[in-house]
Amino acid sequence: MRKIVHIDMDAFYASVEQRDDPSLRGRPVVVAWRGQRSVVCAASYEARTFGVRSAMPAARAERLCPDAVFVPPDFTRYRTVSRQVREILLRHTDLVEPLSLDEAYLDVTETKTMQPSATATAKAIRASIREELALTASAGVAPNKFLAKIASDWRKPDGIFVIRPEDVAAFLLPLPVSRIHGVGKVMDGKLAALGIRTCGDLANVAVADLEQRFGRYGRRLSELAHGIDRGEVKPDRPTMSISAEDTFEHDVPLDALEARIRELAAKVWSATRKTERVGRTVVLKLKTREFRILTRSFTPSTPPKSERELADIAASLRGHVDLPPTTLYRLVGVGLGNFRDADAVPQPELFA
Predict the structure, then answer these.
(1) pTM
(2) Is 103 marked active-site?
């Protein structure tokens, strides 16, 4: 049985800003550029009490919290701090799988530091982050990645939560199914229509019935509802693509999609700020009323350099859809793929 730790830095970008500028401590800090097209990269816990959240339009954040201090993001500095956190994690195990700049999985079944338990390892990591970087992190300890990620969110900020193998059922079964990764509003609604509201309800449904309704994801849902996750911690897995999609309550025509495409592009762009790699290919995904899936993509000569450029390209890809204008769509998605290390991306000639 594995011993997995999930480390999640608390309000990472905002906490770095508050650490480096004492005048921001205790104040509602929003890491974002101002403007109608900007989105929130991070919000301090003081700002979160007003309902401000990551990926929210900056204009809405300003309405929710008029006294917020807006700080433009400094991703170079955040990446530097992220590397310092990574160095602390690697002292304990080489099995570290970063998910973004501010969170990572660790397999501590065996460690370099000979800590007596996974819980002791998590405590030592959190103490080092506090002492060396003057930042806080929350930790989840569990037998697998799925449960460890849920646990790290359980006592945020600056907390630790442990799910022991013998306690998995008692912890998991009462939880709402929305706590399962991949169960968004649409899937939650489908499960609600079947009377499934908790992981316990889901665990009581036959796997065959779930597979019949939801395909291979139905089996995955059943396994997670039972606390089963066979995923291994994979060190240094590079980001290959980032995407966001939305299923509409009512099917809509192609020419009504631009606003939603731009909203999804904002989410994708915000997510890309958490990786050191650079995406080159913009993808537009569509699903028709008849469940036909279409994708259109474009790779510009240089990677998109802003949220607006990403959104403009994604919106323009509608012009490459050759279905009749009367076609209705139930889903739209925006993605950025073909990621490369930043120093491997060719730069434009100065005098082209």
Answers:
(1) 0.71
(2) yes
Residue 351: per-residue pLDDT: 33
Options 46, 62, 97, 103, the catalytic residue: 103
CB 222 within 8 A of CB 169: no
Structure token digits, residue 85: 């956190």
Say what the pLDDT of residue 246 is: 85
Q: Which residue is it, tokens 């996750």?
A: 229
* Tokens 């929210």 -> residue: 56
- Locate the DSSP E strands across the chain: 4-9, 29-31, 42-43, 69-71, 96-100, 103-107, 137-142, 160-162, 242-253, 277-278, 281-288, 293-298, 328-337, 340-341
The per-residue pLDDT for 343 is 62
Check residue 294 and give its pLDDT: 92
Structure tokens belonging to residue 119? 């819980």
Q: At residue 205, does pLDDT exceed 70?
A: yes
Cα separation, 276 vs 255, whole angstroms? 34
